[in-house]
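testing teh design pipeline on a random one, pls ignore if ur not involved
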């Protein structure tokens, strides 16, 4: 956690020899003891207010931090997403300047199952800055840093949803203790707070962005999204308007999926490979509509995960024991890649408990 909090203290971030400065004018500095926490500046040049640490000042660490690859804000910012022409198509030719999805040449035959836990976050921001957001979806930066520090110390590392899809299709088994971080809805704090903490541990994430909210106040900007892609993170499709797809007339569903994918391609220069169903709403027709988008190759639920109830071994001659322990099961196969379950991580999730839960999920 000391490494992650050290990034939040920095007012200057080095990226390939180019400095990105925090906009400090007008920002109040809040202190807790001698600790000052500062979020990453937005790629669009706007920073959030500094926030106090909820924990004692971290002790210095001699461990070198990985380089944070953040591209500077361009002299001429990209045009607002809302000013771009609406493209209601997942055909790569509809946004010819964007790079289409590159998948393995062909899927391997036969059964293949992975047990890669997929974590679900929404907001990484202090409660005081979360506005009207559901408190259960708000994870303070200090808590997020502590959770990732525990996973890092336990030997866990990340891949994106796109990499998971490639591994499934090509029958490639990632190293043990591999997991995915997903961050939904495209809030600006996914860049200003979450990114520097993740990259302190060499972690990447898949950001599921509501395409109709790009460049809106409080949400990721086009420049933010481009910087995230440049830093190795993935931008996924979370529909155009964040409507529960299973509650829509089926004729409206392709627009929510396809137009959002095209808008993300316009903004980032890359077609998205993954999708998250808003509110977890999915049925067979919705899953079919997602699969019909040529570039989308995997989709995630908000839950619930399949429940498994292991029972203790009965004594000789005794009746079978009733289940006594609840476990969560996570698995992915190519056949069910459009209904991949996730683990919701709450602000009350203890770091040690998260490490144990991921171990159980990967064990299957």
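output:
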């Amino acid at each position: 956690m000391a490494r992650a909090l050290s990034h939040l203290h920095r007012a200057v971030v080095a990226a390939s020899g180019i400095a990105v400065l925090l906009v400090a004018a007008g920002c109040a500095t809040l202190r807790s003891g001698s600790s000052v926490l500062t979020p990453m500046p937005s790629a669009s040049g706007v920073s959030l207010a500094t926030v106090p640490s909820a924990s004692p000042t971290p002790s210095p660490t001699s461990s070198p931090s990985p380089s944070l690859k953040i591209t500077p804000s361009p002299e001429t910012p990209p045009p607002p997403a809302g000013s771009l022409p609406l493209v209601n198509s997942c055909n790569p030719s509809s946004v010819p300047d964007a790079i289409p999805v590159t998948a393995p040449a062909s899927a391997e035959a036969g059964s293949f199952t992975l047990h890669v836990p997929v974590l679900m976050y929404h907001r990484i921001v202090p409660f005081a800055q979360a506005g009207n957001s559901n408190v259960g979806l708000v994870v303070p930066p200090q808590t997020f840093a502590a959770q990732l520090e525990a996973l890092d110390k336990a030997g866990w590392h990340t891949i994106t949803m796109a990499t998971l899809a490639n591994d499934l299709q090509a029958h490639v088994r990632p190293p043990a203790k591999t997991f995915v971080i997903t961050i939904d809805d495209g809030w600006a704090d996914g860049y200003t707070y979450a990114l520097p903490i993740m990259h302190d541990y060499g972690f990447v994430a898949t950001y599921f962005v509501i395409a109709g909210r790009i460049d809106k106040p409080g949400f990721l900007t086009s420049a933010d999204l481009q910087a995230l892609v440049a830093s190795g993170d993935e931008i996924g499709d979370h529909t155009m308007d964040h409507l529960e797809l299973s509650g829509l007339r089926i004729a409206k569903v392709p627009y929510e999926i396809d137009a959002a994918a095209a808008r993300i391609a316009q903004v980032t220069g890359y077609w998205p490979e993954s999708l998250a169903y808003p509110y977890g709403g999915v049925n067979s027709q919705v899953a079919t509509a997602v699969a019909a988008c040529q570039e989308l190759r995997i989709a995630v639920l908000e839950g619930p995960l399949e429940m498994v109830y292991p029972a203790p071994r009965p004594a000789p001659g005794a009746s079978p024991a009733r289940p006594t322990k609840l476990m969560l099961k996570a698995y992915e196969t190519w056949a069910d890649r459009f209904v991949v379950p996730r683990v919701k991580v709450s602000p009350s999730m203890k770091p040690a408990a998260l490490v144990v839960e991921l171990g159980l999920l990967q064990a299957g």
